[in-house]
Design a protein that fits this description.
It is a single chain. The chain is of the alpha+beta class. The chain has four helices and 13 strands. Strands 7-6-10-11-12-13 form a six-stranded mixed β-sheet, covered by helices on one side. It starts with a helix and ends in an 8-residue tail after the last strand. The structure holds zinc ion (ZN). The site of zinc ion has 5 residues, from loops.
């Protein structure tokens, strides 16, 4: 016969590292309830990972965006979690005239790459801001982000590929990897109808989108 002490698990010497506590408070990981009500809404400019029955999901909140997207599928096993639906809600749409203005700028400078940003301030006002270009050619651009006002945030990161087609390069993928923003590239700028690609960048996940056709009308 064993005493109760002998049956108790040994006391662990493990304690959480404060850096892990900070890391997990900035980027929480929550389990989607299987039986209970939905998790509290994610607000402000934050993101979290959600453990659902079928894998890991990323949820991103911005003043202009609510995104829920799957980032990892469970190959086997059974997580003690409920299910969640994908969502991509642009809660504050970017005015089409700002996209048009950038495409005009790109086609007017078809011999070299150009870059600009669409930003949103805390009142929800959008603004086109041109990049501070150090040097550029038909195949590259080196630029700085212009100084932004407090609370002003980049919503769309735009550049051109001069006469080359509009497809995101490996350099673009590396530049966009850790960001939450739309990215737009304009190509074939020397042609009557330039090509355009648009995607949502969400912390390493790229979601290809299409600009509404009326954007260029
Ligand atoms: Zn590019």
């Amino acid at each position: 016969m064993h005493s109760s002490n002998e049956n108790s698990p040994p006391k662990s010497a493990w304690t959480a590292d404060r850096r892990d506590i900070l890391l997990q408070s900035v980027t929480p990981v929550e389990i989607v309830p299987h039986f209970g009500q939905a998790l509290p809404a994610l607000t402000g400019s934050r993101h979290r990972y959600l453990v659902a029955a079928d894998g890991i999901w990323l949820e991103v909140a911005r003043p202009w965006l609510h995104l829920v997207t799957k980032v990892g599928t469970l190959d086997s096993g059974s997580l003690p979690a409920g299910r969640i639906a994908a969502a991509l809600d642009v809660t504050n749409p970017v005015p089409a005239k700002l996209f048009r203005e950038f495409v005009r700028h790109a086609t007017a400078n078809a011999e070299k790459e150009v870059a600009a940003f669409i930003t949103m301030d805390t009142s929800g006002n959008f603004r086109l801001r041109h990049a501070i270009v150090k040097d550029s050619s038909a195949a590259h651009i080196n630029y700085q982000v212009p100084a932004l006002e407090p609370g002003e945030d980049i919503v769309v990161d735009m550049h051109s590929h001069a006469a080359f087609p509009a497809s995101f390069s490996s350099t673009d993928n590396a530049d966009d990897h850790q960001m939450v923003k739309f990215a737009l590239v304009v190509g074939n700028c020397d042609c009557p109808t330039p090509t355009v690609e648009l995607r949502l960048c969400a912390l390493g996940k790229f979601i290809n989108l299409q600009l509404p056709s009326e954007t260029f009308q």
